[in-house]
Structures are given as C-alpha cells and as structure tokens.
Design brief:
The protein has 483 residues and is of the alpha+beta class. The chain has helices spanning 29-45, 57-66, 73-88, 127-135, 138-155, 161-175, 185-203, 211-224, 229-238, 289-293, 305-308, 310-327, 354-366, 372-377, 381-384, 420-428, 445-450, 464-471, and strands at 14-18, 21-22, 52-55, 91-92, 98-99, 101-106, 117-121, 247-252, 263-268, 280-285, 300-301, 331-338, 341-349, 405-406, 415-417, 433-437, 453-456, 479-482. The strands form 4 sheets. It has a 6-stranded antiparallel sheet with strand order 2-1-3-8-6-7, sandwiched between helices. The chain has a 5-stranded antiparallel sheet with strand order 11-10-9-12-13. It has a 5-stranded mixed sheet with strand order 14-18-17-16-15.
C-alpha cells in the first residue's frame, strides 16, 4: 500500500529586505516584481535602501481571482511588520515614535506610473503628533499627513483627486504663496481638517485612523490597480501579459520634505533622449518623490544638487556608476535625501528613445560592459522606425513662439487638443493631434499614445509624460516637452 502523498508546501508570499540582507535577488522578478527584485539586489550589494518587504505577485493574482487575500497572508504580513519595526527602530501606530511606510506596486515588467502608490501610511491624529515631536518639525509632520490623506483618499477611498487639489490651490491663494512648500504649519493643519471633511462628505464615513486598516486598504488598492484602464491600456500597447499580476512593496518611509537639507529626485545613468554617457536627472529640495514624477512641480537639474546637497550628490554619483556596471545596463533611479543622508528607492532599466538605445548599446560595447551580440539584442526592431521620425530642418530659420524642456527628440505637428479622451477619439478618426495639458497623470496614458506630441505647462524631463513618450515604441512619431 503506497504512502499518502504529502501535502504540497504553501508557497512563500512575503520576502524581507533591509540592513544589508535580503531574501530575494534580481533574478526573482517573476516572484517579486521588478521593483522588489531590485530592492533586494541593491540591499545585498550594500546600497543604502530603507528596510521593507515585498508581497509576491502570486498574491495579486490569487486576490483578483477570489476577491480576498490568500490564506496565511495576513499572518505573514503581521510577522513582516514586526521585523520591519525591529529593523527601523520604530513601531507601527506608536504615538511616540511612529513607523510610517510606503505601499507601492511593482510588476515583473516595468509599467511606470500605471499602478498605485501610497506614501506616509500610518499617520493619524495621534501619530502625527509623535512625528512632529521626533522630527522637531511640526510643519513637516502636517505636510506628510495632508499628503497621506490625499493619496489614500484618492487611491483607496475613491475621492476624486481634483477635489483635494482644489482645496490645496485655494489654500495657496489664501496664504499668498505659489508653491505647496511655502505653506506654513497653520495652513497645513487647516488643510488636514478640510481633507478629512472632504472624505467624510464624499464617502459618508470617517477617515480610517487604525494603521492596520490603512495598510490592508492600501495593499488591496494596489492589487486592484492591476485592472485599471490605464494599466490595461499600457499592457496592450507594450505587449505585457495580463496574467502576471503585481507585487506590493512595503518600505519604511524616508523623508525628502524635512527641510532644505532634504530632497528627492529621479535620475538616469545616461541621457535617455540621446544616450550620452552623462549622469542625467532632476531633483527637488524639501519634497517627496511624487512631486517629481507627477510633474506637479518643475524640478532642478541634477547638476545643481552638487551645490545644494554635496555629500549626498557625491554618494549618488558613485552609486549610479556602481549600479550601471553591476546591471550592465542604463539605470533609472529614484532617490531621497533625508537630512543629508542618501537612500535609493528604486533602480530599473531606463526607458529611452531609439537613438539613445543605439548609442548606449554601441558605447557599452566600446566600454567592455557588453558584447556585440547583446548590443544587437538591446535595440528592438520596432524601435528602429523611431530613427526615421521627422525633425526640423536645420536650414529653416523659424521664430519660436515659446521655449521649454525637450523631454524627447523629434518634431511633430497636429491639432492642439486639451483632453486625452478627445485626443484618442480624434486620432482614431485619422486626425494628427498634439495633447496639451497643464501636467499629465497616468490616467492620460490613452491620450498620450494617441497623440503625435505632448506639451505640458509643468513638470520636467523625468516626469510621467516624458518617460511614457520616450518609452513608447510605435510607428507613430511621439515627442514630449514642458514649457
């Protein structure tokens, strides 16, 4: 009589990283997603990464199939949170020294901006006081709280983003300031109350003050974001399978909005528009990462960081070179500087134009990083068409009407359209359109890919519009710029 088959082992769902050790590696993208695999890889390399853990992509597909988290995941996340508390020296929900976390998506194939992110999770009316005390900066604490209320209210509670923006814009007008960073503690305290009232009026319920409730609301919102229209459209355009699912990365917060010795930025190890071997990027002082990638503020060139945050910039220069040599590929980095201390939040293969792909591949062969066969593989056949895109004839002496930041090369013409739905509709009808926006968001993706060009009033060359325009490989010329 044969022995009964032993039960198959429960698949592992949570992988931790921090303090120089990680459970994963760069080769585990199918399990950890690209972001989680690279956070683990950077941790093992000794790159300064905040501690955290990754929920595997399989949990997303299980959740979407069953409508609930897979068995055992809640206990595994609880244990991982205890480990994160030990690694950070803070406690989740502690009114004295609160641990705050970011909750971010991370698919096996890069989908920049298409799924959801929530920062500063763990704040409530009690922990904000502890954050103010431990940081010695009440303005920073309430700035973080209003950011959390807005992101959580939008992503998890479905309160329209523009309602929060209207209250924020009104607060700037009343205060007589031009930027969010100029709002003082009193204005931010008032804004927090206005945001909570907006959530109450829109949802019919109070904002959840329990950090664990907040955490699971955010995790499930990230899973659901795999099915958002913008994510589905991106996968369709880029040939990404719907079955992959997304990981969820839960990472201890580090803060770029603590003052003039703090900041955040996005950078590329080479110029993603031209391929030039030059550190390329943008940063903001006294800001959080979404301020850069969302294009809501126009950032500073990365070169100016050398004067503003010299120690962190020197370490960033060395780190970006080390990462490119390790991955043997041009890298796209996200970083935060907290009171002069550098942290890497992400590294991934950088989106680039066809011309940049060709130059980078050739240069890396000359530098001995890759061989000729790999260089050919790195320039997709579909991208070669971009090299034939139109440019302005250098012999033409036209008078420009305005100047801006050229996020990607090429020239285009078309009917100015101010709504992404209209852009998609008119392009389908055969019209050449130029999408003009104050700034773009991931929800505009369908309009961006339909347009011949994108022009924004705000944002820099590492904003969402710029990254999407550079990385879209179609037969349609596509360029982007910010006025």
């Amino acid at each position: 009589m044969s022995a009964p088959a032993s039960p198959s082992p429960t698949p592992r769902l949570v992988y931790a990283f921090g303090n120089g050790h990680a459970d994963g590696t760069r080769d585990m993208k199918a399990i950890l997603g690209g972001k989680g695999a690279n956070l683990a890889e950077m941790t093992n390399l000794g790159v300064p990464v905040p501690p955290g853990f990754t929920i595997a992509c399989s949990a997303c597909t299980a959740y979407l199939a069953a409508g609930r988290p897979p068995d055992g995941l809640r206990d595994a996340v609880s244990r991982a949170m205890v480990g994160l508390e030990e690694a950070s020296g803070k406690r989740f929900g502690d009114p004295g020294s609160p641990l705050l976390v970011s909750v971010r998506s991370g698919a096996p194939v890069s989908m920049p901006g298409m799924m959801e992110t929530i920062l500063n999770l763990g704040l409530n009316d009690t922990t904000v006081l502890g954050l103010a005390r431990t940081s010695g900066n009440a303005r920073f604490a309430y700035d973080s709280y209003r950011r959390f209320l807005q992101m959580y209210g939008d992503v998890v509670l479905s309160v329209p983003h523009h309602h929060f923006e209207s209250l924020l814009r009104a607060k700037r007008i009343v205060a007589g300031v031009h930027t969010d960073a100029e709002l003082d503690e009193s204005a931010l305290r008032n804004l927090v109350e206005e945001y909570k009232q907006l959530i109450r009026q829109t949802t019919g319920a109070e904002f959840p003050m329990d950090p664990t409730t907040q955490l699971w609301g955010a995790i499930e919102a990230v899973w659901r974001s795999w099915t958002l229209k913008k994510a589905i459209d991106y996968r369709r355009v880029n040939g990404i399978a719907d079955s992959l699912g997304t990981a969820v990365n839960i990472v201890a917060m580090v803060f770029g909005n603590l003052g003039d010795d703090s900041g955040t930025g996005v950078a590329f190890t080479r110029n993603p528009a031209t391929g030039e071997r030059r550190f390329y990027g943008e940063f903001l002082i006294n800001a959080q990462g979404e301020d850069v990638v969302a294009g809501i503020r126009t950032p500073l060139p990365i070169e100016q960081m050398a004067a503003r945050l010299p120690g962190a910039f020197a370490e960033l220069q060395a780190t970006q070179d080390r990462l490119e040599r390790h991955y043997q590929e041009m890298q796209d980095l996200e970083f935060t500087v907290e009171r002069g201390r550098l942290f890497l939040l992400q590294t991934r293969t950088g989106k680039r134009t066809a011309a940049a792909s060709l130059r980078i591949a050739c240069d890396m062969v000359a530098e001995g990083l890759i061989g000729p066969r790999e260089a050919v593989r790195r320039v997709p056949a579909g991208q070669i068409d971009q090299l034939l895109h139109p440019v302005i004839d250098e012999s033409v002496r036209a008078t420009p009407l305005c100047q801006g930041l050229p996020a990607s090369p090429g020239a285009a013409s078309g009917i100015a359209v101010f709504d992404p739905d209209v852009a998609e509709r008119r392009a389908t009808a055969g019209d050449a359109v130029v999408l003009v926006r104050e700034e773009t968001t991931p929800e505009d993706f369908h309009g961006i890919v339909a347009a011949r060009a994108v022009v924004t009033a705000r944002g820099g060359m590492t904003s969402h519009a710029a990254v999407v325009a550079r990385g879209t490989s179609t037969s349609t010329p596509r360029t982007a710029g910010s006025r």
